[in-house]
Amino acid sequence: MSAAERILSRAVNEITPGSIVNLGIGLPTQVIRYLPDDFDVQIHSENGILGAWKQSPPEAMDPFLIDAAGAYVSLREGASLFDSAVSFALIRRARLDLTMIGAFEVDEQGNLANWKIPGKFSPGIGGAMELAQKTPRIVVLTTHTDKHGRPKILKSCRLPLTAKACVSRIVSDLAVMDVTPQGLVVREKLVEISDADLQARTEAELTFAA
Amino acid sequence: MSAAERILSRAVNEITPGSIVNLGIGLPTQVIRYLPDDFDVQIHSENGILGAWKQSPPEAMDPFLIDAAGAYVSLREGASLFDSAVSFALIRRARLDLTMIGAFEVDEQGNLANWKIPGKFSPGIGGAMELAQKTPRIVVLTTHTDKHGRPKILKSCRLPLTAKACVSRIVSDLAVMDVTPQGLVVREKLVEISDADLQARTEAELTFAA
Amino acid sequence: MKKNQTLENAIAAIPSGAVVMVGGFGNPGTPFSLINELVRQGQTGLTIIKNDANEPGHGLSRLIENGQVRKLITTHIGLNKGVIELMNQGDLEVAFHPQGMLAEKIRTAGAGSFGFLTDIGIDSEITQPEDLLEWQGQTYKVEMALPAAYALIHAAQADWIGNLVYQGSAINFSPLMAMAANHVIVETPDLGAPGRFKPEHVHTPGAFVDSIVPLESLTSEYGVLEHHVRR
Amino acid sequence: MKKNQTLENAIAAIPSGAVVMVGGFGNPGTPFSLINELVRQGQTGLTIIKNDANEPGHGLSRLIENGQVRKLITTHIGLNKGVIELMNQGDLEVAFHPQGMLAEKIRTAGAGSFGFLTDIGIDSEITQPEDLLEWQGQTYKVEMALPAAYALIHAAQADWIGNLVYQGSAINFSPLMAMAANHVIVETPDLGAPGRFKPEHVHTPGAFVDSIVPLESLTSEYGVLEHHVRR
Questions:
Q1: Which residues contact C103 (CB under 8 A, 6 or more apart)?
Q2: Using H for helix, E for strand and C for coil, what is the string for chain B?
C-alpha cells in the first residue's frame, strides 16, 4: 500500500453514518472512492453541492457538475444544488459535521497552515479558511513528512495560518494522532514503527496512549 | 364614478409597457383590475412574487398565493417566486421601475408619511420604507382630503416620514400633480374644478401648468 | 438519516423563554399545526420573530392571545386589532422592523455573519444615533443579525433528510429562518423519500433542517380566507 | 419585454476600464462565449471579479493572457500557473478573498447593502487592523460590499424576460452576481418564451437581467476536460 492509500483507507473510517462531510482538495476528495456505495453520508462540495458522489462513467459524465477540485462527480438521491453564498452559509453556520483537509503544516495546538508559502506558493485561500474555522471537527490528512523527509507535524506552525486551534485529529501515513489539551496523543499506528522512530519523524512532542 | 374609481382609472395610465411595478396595500393593489389582460407589465409583490396578476376565479384560487394585502392573486406566464430577502434585494437594488403607494400625508418636497400616526395608529412599517426610499419613481394614490375634508397634500408633512423627497407624482381624486424643484405642478384635473377651488383644498402651494 | 418526528416530540424540544422564528407572510407559509401544538403544550415567555401576527384566532395570534408570548419581533400587525390592543396596553412587547430589514437581519444570522451596513431608514425616526457608524468616510446604519434557537417552518413538500420545497408565496421568510435558527422544525403534508426532487429545485437543503413532522392533511385554517376574496 | 441581444451588441456595452463580474467555478458556469467576444472586441484595463482564472487558454485566462485585465479579484488561481506567473511578475494585480467572503461581499452588494460584520480570518494575516470594528462590546471584521458595473453569466435555460435556470454545480456565483451588477448580460443555449418555467423553479428572477444572448450551440470548451477525468 502506498502512503496515500494508507491515509485514505484509514481516513474513510472517520466518517460516521448520517453525517455531513466536506472533503478538501487533494487527498481528501479521494476518500469518496473508499466509501461503500450504500453508506449513509452526505458529501458537501463548497461549489454548491450537498450529496456529491463518485465519478460517473464517461458516458454519463456531466461537464456542468464538478467538485471543488474540478473532478466530475455524480449526485446521490436526495442531493441538492445551491449558490456559493448558501454553500458557505452552511459552512459558517456549522451545519457540517466533519471536514477532511490537507496541510502544509499542522501543530500540537491544532493550528493549521495549508494555503500559503510566502515567496513560493500563494494561489489564494479558496474555501479553506472558512472550513477550518467553522467546521466542528477537522481531520487533517497528510503525509507525516514532506518530500525532503522534514516533519510536517510541528511544535508550532511557521507558515501563515489557515485557522488557529481548529484541528481535532491528524491521519498521516504512519499514525492517527489526536490534538488534546496535553498535546498530540498517538491513537493508532498505521505501519510497524517504534515509538522512538515515530517521534523522530515528528517535531511535535507525541504522547503514546497506553 | 367614485373618488376611488377616479384615482384608479387615472393611475393605471402611469404604468408604461415593459415596466416592473410594485402596488402597495390599499388603493394601489386595486389598480391591477384596470389593466388590459394582455398589457406588458410585471407586477411585484413584496412577499416574493414577480408577475402577480388578477384574482383567480374561486375554483382556481390558491390559498398559498396572496399579495401583500392578503388578496388571492394569480400568476402570469413568466412569473417567478422567491424569498423575502431576494424580494427586498430587488427593491433596494432599484430593479423596480415604479411603486404606487398610499399616503396619510404627502408634501411639496415629495416627502411621504404613510406608516404611523403617533398615539393612534402604529401597526408597523411593513415594506413601505424600502419601497419609498429605493424605487426610482413613486406615484402616490390618495384622496385629495381626508374624511374630515382636511388637506392631505401639505406644505410639509407633520407625521413621521416613511422617506424623504421620494415622491414624483400624486394622483388624487381631483388632480394629477408633479413634485418639481419649484413645488407641486398641476398636470391634469380629474373633475371640473377651478384653480382656486383646488388650491383651497390643498395646503401646499400649487402651480398650474400653462 | 431520517429526521421524522411526532408533532408532540418535535415541539417538546422548545423550552419556555425560547426565541422562536415562525415562517409565513399572512396565511401562506404559516405553520399552523406546529403553532397549535405549542399552544397545547403551553410554553410561556416566548420571543417570537414573524413577519406578522396572523389574524385574530389564527396561527400566531392564538399563541399571543393565550399569553405565551413575551415579545414579538415583526414588521406589520395591521390586520390584527387584538394584538395591536395588547401592544398598546403594554401586555405584549413589540419591536418593528422594515420588512426587508427583518428579512436581511435573519438572513445575516443565517449566513453566520453578525450584522450589516445599510442606509434604509437612516434619516427616519426608526434610527437612533447609536445605530450609526462612520466607516471609511461614509455614514451607515448598522443592523445586527437576528438569530434564534428555534424555527417553525411549513413546507409544501419534504424528504426524510430535510430537503424542502415551498409553494406559491409561502416561501417568504422560511428559507432564511431555516438558515438562521439552531434547531429547525418543519411541518409538511407531503413527506417522501430522498430522490423525489430534482437537486436544483430544492429550496432549503436538508443540512439546515433538524426535525420533520408529517401532517396527515391540511386543516381548514390552511385554506382560503373568505374575507380576503374580492367580490 | 424582450431582452434578446446579439453577442456583439451585448458585449459592446462594456467600456475599457470597467469592473466586470464573471460567473463560474472552474468550467461550470463560465460564460465562455461572452468572454471570447470580449477578447475579440479588445476592451482593456478591466477589473474582473471571478472565483478563479479558469485554466490556461480557456475562459477568463484568455482575457488575462491577452493583456486586457488590470486587476483580478478572486479566491484561488492554483490551477493556472500562467496567471500566477503574471501576478508574481507584477503584470497583473490580484486581490484574494476567502471564497465564502467573496460570495458574501457580492451578495451584500446584490442586496443593496454596503458591508457586513464577520469573524472569518479575523486573527489571520488577511485581516488588517483598519478592517476591525469595535461595536457594542465585540470586535468584528468589516467586509465591504463588492458591486460591479457589469456581470457576465451563463444560464442553462432562460426566457425572454430574463428568468434564469442554472444547471449542476454551475449555479455557484451566478445568482449573486446577477443581483450585484448594474448591467447583467446572460448567454444561454436554450432561450424560450415566458411560461416555460414553473415560477418556483426560477433561480434568478428576470428583473435582475438586462440582456440575453442566445447561443446556437455549446462549443467544445463547455465540455468535459479530459485531464480532470480520474482513470
A1: B83, B84, B85, B87, B88, C173, C176
A2: CCHHHHHHHHHHHHCCCCEEEEECCCHHHHHHHHCCCCCCEEEEECCCEEEEECCCCHHHCCCCCECCCCCECEEEEEEEECEHHHHHHHHHCCCCCEEEECCCEEECCCCEECCCECCCECCCCCCHHHHHHHCCCEEEECCCECCCCCECEECCCCCCCCECCCCCEEECCCEEEEEECCEEEEEEECCCCCHHHHHHCCCCCEEECC
Residues of C in contact with A80 (CB under 8 A): 163, 197, 199, 202, 205-206
Which of A70, A122, A125 is closest, CB to CB, to D79? A70
Measured between beta carbons, the chain C residues lying within 8 angstroms of D108 are 116
Closest by CA position to B98, among listed B49, B144, B131: B131
Q: Does the annotation count A46 as an active-site position?
A: yes
Which pLDDT score, from 0 to 100, does residue B58 have? 86
- Residue keyed to cell 471584521: D141
User: How many Å lie between the alpha carbon of D48 and the closest alpha carbon of chain B?
Assistant: 21
Q: Taking CA atoms, what residue in A is nearest to D86?
A: A123
Choose the mutation target among D113, D146, D157 for the interface with C, i.e. most C CBs under 10 Å.
D113
Name the residue of chain D whose CA is nearest to C202's CA.
Answer: D201
Cβ–Cβ below 8 Å for C169 and B64? yes
Written as tens digits, the pLDDT of chain A (210 aa) is 899 999 999 999 999 999 999 999 989 999 999 999 999 999 999 999 999 999 988 888 999 999 999 999 999 999 999 999 999 999 999 999 999 999 999 999 999 999 999 988 889 999 999 999 999 999 999 999 999 999 999 999 999 999 999 999 999 999 999 999 999 999 999 999 999 999 999 999 999 976
CATH number, domain of A186, equals 3.40.1080.10
Closest residue in B to C222 (Cα–Cα): B63
Beta carbons of B129 and C224 less than 8 Å apart:
no
CA C40-C41-C44 angle, to 5 degrees, is 110
The count of structural domains within chain A is: 1
Instruction: Enter the C-alpha cell of residue D178.
Output: 446577477
Q: How many CB atoms lie within 10 A of CB B54?
A: 15
pLDDT tens sequence across B16-26: 999 999 999 98
Domain that holds residue A49: 3-208
Does the pLDDT value for residue D226 go beyond 90? no
Question: Which chain C residues touch D104 with a CB distance below 8 Å?
Answer: 111, 113
How far B100 CA sits from the closest chain C CA (Å)?
A: 17
Q: Hey, which residues does B39 pair with through a beta bridge?
A: none
Q: Going edge to edge, which strands form the sheet with B74-81?
A: B74-81, B49-53, B41-45, B19-23, B98-101, B138-141, B169-171, B175-180, B183-189, B206-208
| Strand pairing category for A49-53 and C69-74 | unpaired
The answer to whether A158 contacts chain D (CB < 8 Å) is no
A161 contacts A183 by C-beta, under 8 angstroms: no
Nearest to D207 among B40, B85, B95 (CB): B95
Provide the ipTM: 0.98
**Structural domains of chain C, ranges and CATH numbers in brackets:** 7-215 (3.40.1080.10)
Question: Subunits that touch chain D (at least 3 Cβ pairs < 8 angstroms)?
Answer: A, B, C
Chain B residues touching C172 at Cβ < 8 A: 47-48, 83-84
Q: What are the chain D neighbours of A133 within 8 Å (beta carbons)?
A: 119-121
User: Does the CB of A122 have a partner CB in chain C at under 8 Å?
Assistant: no
Query: Are β-strands A105-107 and A153-154 bridged in parallel, bridged antiparallel, or unpaired?
Result: parallel
Give the whole-angstrom CA distance, residue B95 versus residue D110: 11
pTM for the model stands at 0.98
Backbone angles phi, psi at B30, to 5 degrees: -80, -15
- Catalytic, out of A5, A14, A46, A59: A46
